[in-house]
Write a structure and sequence with these properties.
Layout lengths: L7 H23 L3 E5 L4 H14 L4 E7 L5 H13 L4 E5 L15 H16 L6 E4 L12 H8 L5 H4 L4 H10 L25 H16 L7 E5 L2 E5 L5 H5 L4 H10 L4 E4 L11 H6 L1
Parallel strand pairs: 1-2, 1-4, 2-3, 6-7
Antiparallel strand pairs: 5-6
Helix pairs in contact: 1-2, 1-7, 2-7, 4-5
């Protein structure tokens, strides 16, 4: 996950160096008749939406946000507020992913099936007869990581202008900061399904259990960068080492343990390896 502890001058210098890539994205967007942006509420998709509105105007842009079992309601609301702040029309597309194909079995390529279902649903809500280009916020830093969802996007012809222009996560943060986007430093996020080991059956109850645990850490402890990984009745907390004192503080620890046990976890652990993006993929590497 990208760090955001650069100095102000450093961010400005990075944004200046990345400006030609931004211009390439704008040129691509201006060449489209209409653009639909898959908006998760993260930095990348928000920045992409801002560029689309600049390139085409809000009348030729729409932001689409999925609301399934994998997105907490507060994240959907954040996406709505971001679209409103940018003056872009916004539509929430509701769907149940747990009923689609093998998604509930949580196979290693679950993200492929989820992404395909979501992007197909987005396509279906766009007005027929208009030439819409569907885009999403993948970036160049995603290349080389295990992201089966990107294969689904390619198969469906969904474009990733930021990635195609070679923009990295840090460059996008710098450019988003230069545009005063409110979430330029928002920690990278992933859907709730990513909190479970592959092969663990996903249910609405398990997903809500993790969502509630993370909500507590965010609102009561003030944590921003973390994950609650669920291994049956074990909650494995991943957070940066500098934040460990916040959860180990004797004044807070009993309430944290009590709350997570009330949610159904029996054992509460702190991962000594800290926060890692995609840590559930470690099991795939070991198996290989």
């Amino acid at each position: 996950m990208a760090e955001v502890n650069r100095t102000s001058d450093s961010w400005e210098e990075l944004a200046a160096r990345a400006r030609p890539k931004e211009e390439a994205v704008l040129a691509f967007l201006r060449a489209q008749e209409r653009v639909a942006v898959a908006l998760s509420g993260g930095t990348d998709s928000t920045y992409l939406l801002a560029l689309a509105v600049e390139a085409l105007g809000p009348q030729r842009v729409v932001a689409l946000t999925a609301h399934s079992e994998f997105e907490p309601p507060e994240e959907v609301e954040e996406a709505r507020a971001l679209a409103e702040g940018l003056g872009a029309p916004h539509q929430v597309v509701r769907l149940s992913l747990l009923t689609r194909g093998p998604v509930a079995q949580n196979p290693p390529d679950r993200c492929y099936f989820c992404k395909r279902e979501v992007l197909t649903a987005f396509r279906e809500v766009l007005p027929q007869g208009d030439a819409w280009t569907l885009v999403y916020g993948a970036n160049a830093s995603d290349l080389g990581d295990y992201r089966p969802g990107e294969r689904a996007a390619r198969e469906l012809g969904v474009r990733a202008p930021l990635q195609e222009a070679g923009l990295t996560k840090e460059e996008i943060r710098a450019l988003a900061r230069a545009r005063n986007l409110p979430n330029w430093d928002r920690p990278s996020a992933a859907c709730l399904a990513s909190r479970f080991p592959y092969g663990t059956r996903l249910t609405p109850e398990r997903l809500e259990q993790v969502a509630a645990a993370e909500r507590y850490l965010r609102t009561e402890l003030g944590l921003r960068r973390f994950r609650v990984r669920a291994h049956g009745d074990i909650a494995r907390l991943e957070l940066p080492r500098e934040d460990w004192p916040l959860v180990l503080d004797e004044a807070r620890l009993p309430a944290l343990v009590e709350h997570l046990r009330a949610l159904g976890f029996i054992y509460i652990t702190l991962d000594l390896m800290g926060l890692r993006s995609g840590s559930m993929n470690d099991a795939l590497k070991v198996a290989a």
